[in-house]
Amino acid sequence: MESRGVPWLPAFVVTVLSASGSALAANSNYCNGPLVSVLPPTSFEGSSTSSSSQSSHYAKLNRRDGGGGWTPGHTDTQHWLQVDLRERVEVTSVATQGRYSSSDWVTSYMLLFSDAGRTWKQYRQEDNIGTFYGNTDADSVVHHKLSHPIRTRFLRFVPLDWSPTGWVGLRVEVYGCAYKSDVADFDGRSSLLYRFNQKSMSTVKDVISLKFKSQKPDGVLVHGEGQRGDYITLELHRGTLALHLNLDDAKLHPSSGHTSVMLGSLLDDQHWHSVLIERFNKQINLTVDRLTHHVRTKGADDSLEVDYELSFGGIPLPGKPGTFLRKNFHGCIENLYYNGVNVIDLAKRRKPQIYSGNVTFACSEPQLVSTTFLSSSSSFLKVPVEPLMEGLSVYFQFRTWNHEALLFSATLAQEPERLVLLLINGQLRLTHHQLIFVRQSLSDGQWHSITISLRGLQVSLTLDSEPTSTLELRDSVDPGSSIFFGGCPSTLSSQSCRNPTMAFQGCMRSITINNQPMNLLHVQQGLLGNYSKLQFDICGIRDRCLPNFCEHDSQCSQSWSTFYCDCSGTGYTGATCHNSIFEPSCEAHRQTGSASGYFSIDPDGSGPLKSTLVYCNMTEDKVWTVVKHSSSGAMSVQGSTLQQPHVARFNYSASPEQLRILVGRSEHCQQEVAYRCRKSRLFNTWDGNPLAWWLDRSGEKRTYWGGFLPGVQQCSCSLEENCIDMNYFCNCDADRHSWENDTGLLSYKDHLPLTEIVIGDTNRTGSEAVYTVSSLQCYGDRFLWNSASFYQESSYLHFPTFQAELSADISFYFKTTATSGVFLENLGAKDFIRVELSTPSAVTFIFDVGNGPVVLTVKSPLPLNDKQWHFVRAERTLKEASLQVDRLPLRFMEAPSEGHYRLQLSGQLFIGGTASRQRSFLGCIRALSMNGLTLDLEERAKMTPGVSSGCPGHCSSHNRLCHNWGKCIEKSSGYECDCTHSAYGGPHCKTEVSVSFESGSSVTYTFQEPFSVMRNKSRQSSAIFAQSSKSRESIAFSFLTNQAPAMLLTVSTYHQQYMAVILSLNGSLQIWYQLNREKRPDVFIPHPYGLANGQLHRVQIHREGKDIVVIMKSSAFIGRAGVDEEVLQAGSRGFVGCLSSVQFNHLAPLKAAILNRGSSLISVLGNLVESNCGALADKSSSHSLTDDRGKERLKNAAQTDSAVIGGLVAAVVLVTLCMVAVMTRFLYRHRHERSQQMAPVKEKDQPPLPSRLEHGFHAELDLRTAVAARDSRKEYFI
């Protein structure tokens, strides 16, 4: 720690150079010397050797003697080549060859490293790539520079694939340099004390750097504290590094100064991890390995005051205040530097300022051997058991992320009886005939210990240090001859072992049977037991949530092979919570058919800003967006001077950045300042200084009070030339005793909104000012129709590089008569992204992140070059990629769990063409949005030859001609509105389509043959937490009734699944979802109050996967699981009243029933009367429900990608009278066999695009009860 009088820079430089000297060398040209060529033969070891001339010591690069390299035996199933570098060195690169002049070489391999030839760790490159590509012939050299150097003694090359015409052959070289370090070993009871030369050290700057490897998940690494209450503690807690800091005096600030930072995961893996702490005043940078977290301390003070000493490895004296960890560190610390001081070096030299308590200076290596179970379907370990008279005892440790697994299965002498230990929903279940249930989540990646004992009539289970659970048996049982860990063989003919759930994926160690430790290395060598899909002497667990790739503050969870994002309460959806569920503007809400009301909008879409609540005022010719602030009433001001002015600040319902984007997106914005005065001037001073002013959104002082263009010291009356005294620019400046008015309309967008107003001339007798600042009001969406026309070959627009490293969403409209053309393209050194019209009826999305091109194509049954507008949305995230064209089925692929994932682009973004100026697009593109940013095509087109701003045609107008999802169709002499997919009718799709239902009447609309959900069964992956992210529907309708209970709408599928919207007995609206036949239905109550009140109510429902968004007007939104009685009751009563404008995805079933009564798809029962009840009610007593926005999560949803409602829908039923027998079961025969639903790319039916729904109140239901297989539905791109 640095004292205040010592310069900061020298200590900092010493620390960085001393702690990172090897790293600096590794990044230079000085750490690239060959390390293998000088090694003796004893440094090489192989898993096996095919012959003495092909033994491991011949595996040096370019060596030709002997057999020209190493080749393992042909019966060797786990081959590896190991190199002992004789001491720990720094490795910066590796190189491989095949066996000299042969057909044997390795095409891909893993690289493992270890300090002692035990407890290996897999080296991973950038993007967590764990595989190195190898050779394509015997003699060429393939060189790999490591993205980050490693310090190790042992390297192991593990071949994964090899020559298709030969066998494994390998020659290697390793490059690097010497590595020196100071190491201290802590046994869990030892510590180092660094004592100061003075009683107390107070610092404002500190740097602490070290490396550690730990045998335990908990332990203190660094601790120091002062008598006034300051402290610093660096500790391991459950394998995560925690830094606790307090800079405040505890007496003056008892609790305000405590700051904690958590970083890292799985740090108890017995491998080295680097730590760097940098503090300057309140700013702290904590770096663990290559992850850095920046934080600012709380409290008032900047300095850290520590008394007497700092301790490393533990706290030597018990009961000291300010400590956070209960255990000392158990492991090794290397290169420990504290403000430039090499603490371990001082301890080794026995310097007096260091006290060494039971610390040794050589790192002891643990003897634990772990094994990794790799497959969720076929991994197992079978070991024999010597029968004992006293029964059976088993002990082992495990760690996993998976929630479902078979951990242990023991055959009993009384076959087919078994003793089985399962992991179900992350909790332990030990079963024989009865059940021991341990309520604890064990799928947390931590090591857990299990002890099972079978003695006579009693079976006991002990988990970690918890109390033992006991199961009493009815009959005495004896153990059989074998035990299975992790799974069972799939080829086992008897019933002695079965996989009732997934096989175990994770790590096990310390397996002990009847008090005898099991030698896992003997199992690997084939000397003991049997196994499948295991990896020995390594624990391959990874934390896939570090770093967290879930966007917008969503929660990350994981299985062994992938991660999942919980978007609940975020306002976003998708596999990584990338897409906003909200419309970008009020103008977009009008296009969905919404009336005036409060709506959440997200102007930057998938960008970083959250949504904001605004009022959308839908007038006949304009849509106004109204943003309110905190001071809406009139404010009277008296007694203010320039020295003590009246100051009022305005806090808006949106953040400053949200306001900036909203204003920039709008065509026009305005804000009225109503200002009345008497004897209160604005500008009339002898020195010209203003007496009143306001601050714009940037905090800049403004002195104009009206108009579009900003002026200097002027009011509206001067612009209109009607001031009461033309000698002044403002009415108030006439300084009269009468009330005057200087109300003005501010409309210069770059200055809006007004954030503060200052008034300084109301202190004279009779002086007073009264002002009112209106809400910010904007209209128009200048990006919604922002377009450009490409009319020359090789013409294009170019923009800066598209920043889309981890996720990309692209949406736009186009119209053309051309047969093909590239909409957009961006290239990198190797990666690229492109969207194009590949044929007259197909759009293709293609990109490459380093794993090879990924191609998604949507083919239309009708030509797309029909000179009509078509919508395209392409998306790529770490989890999946998708392509949507109009309302055609969505095409999507799931990303591989391993492989490159960063899209690295470097060139310019080309719109309407390519860098090669070939295959240019001819036609119009509009509303091009990329990652939430809409490109200004019109502005760029003004300066580009071959491209013009705007797009000709009636359907390119800013004034929307067709409403409520009606499609504008260009005609030679005008246009017409196609209302086929709209629930409305009339020439502009604005006429309500309503039906009055009488008792006994109903409408049933049966879908045509649905699109099949295509799957790929060639690749398997974990189904844990698999989300049905592509199953979705959007529903909207209005209703009017005085009857409750009532059935409003039901949707049923061939899979005996259903969705129902009902009014319950008390008139509350309820939405029922039965998506998993094995579980109870989910029930959502967005409006708990009576709606059977004779008023017209509008309801909008949007479901995507397990997320449901409902637009309602209420303050409560409830989700619960229930049974079907209420649905049956509502169905039995039917519905009497008015239903209007019913929309289901892209279908309008109620309108279809009226217009196509003879259709075989439509069944009408009872008396059905078309009416205008919806329109009449809307004019007289309409009750808008768009104030309430709720979002819920389906709790018991089947986790499958079948198009539950959207793709495999059987019928939409508008029910008035439904027989109880019909409502009891929705039983339909599944028309398609599972094998007919396999294809390389998945398809889904989609709701109208680009619609998103409202959101407001968020409540979360636990999804983890839902478990289903998705393996066969996975699609990978490679």
TrEMBL record:
Cellular component, GO annotation: membrane
Keyword Transmembrane recorded: yes
Chain positions covered by the region annotation Disordered: 43-73
Compartment(s) where it occurs, according to its Swiss-Prot or TrEMBL record: Membrane
Metal-binding in keyword set: no
Domain EGF-like: 541-578, 952-990
Record protein name field: Contactin-associated protein-like 5
Gene: cntnap5b
